[in-house]
Structures are given as structure tokens and as C-alpha cells.
Amino acid sequence: MAENLSKAELVDVVAKTADITKVAAAAAINCAIETIAAHVNKGGKVTLVGFGTFSQKSRKARTGRNPQTGEPIKIAASKSMSFKASKAAKAAKAKAKAKPAAKGAKKK
Length: 108
Fold this sequence. Notes:
This protein has helices spanning 7-18, 22-41, 87-97, and strands spanning 46-48, 52-59, 62-65, 72-75, 78-85. It is of the alpha+beta class. It folds into two domains: 1-42, no CATH class; 46-92, HU Protein, Chain A, CATH 4.10.520. The chain starts with 6 loop residues before the first helix and ends in an 11-residue tail after the last helix.
């Protein structure tokens, strides 16, 4: 399984792959993140073909329970950012996850 990739590590990979400085890579990544967040917070969607779609989801107000006392509490309605992977991204993940059968394994 792959390890988690921090933002600093992402900047390093982008800088190396695109043959640009780390400062330029960090600026590009920060700009992309800020632009996506601003557009989604206004209620829009951002679709990156072959990767996925960022959108805003609304959650209705609901009643929850305080885990310590068991008393009901009101949870306010809220909005959050959502990401849905594209078919291509899901297929790439499934392909990477599938492993060939081990040598010498018995077939039924």
C-alpha cells in the first residue's frame, strides 16, 4: 500500500516532474487548491476530466446524542465539500489494487 503524500512531498514531486522550482510548484498547487475551494464554496462544481469532481453537499439539521450523557442534541444544517472520483480514476485504482496470482498457487 502506498504511503500518504503530504503537501510538501507533493510540491517536491511536481517540481521534479515539471522541472520547475519548488517555490513555483508550491505557488501553482496553492493557487489550484484556493481556486477549487472558492468556486465550490460559491455553489459551483469543478470537474477535472480523468480525475474527478469537487462539489458542495448540504446536510440537513438533525438530532444527535451526547455520547457521555445520552441526551439528545440538535446538530445544525451544514455544507461541506465533496469529491467524486471519475470512472477513469476508479479504474486506475482497481487496476493498481489487483495483483496477479502467486506462483505455485493452486487453481480450483
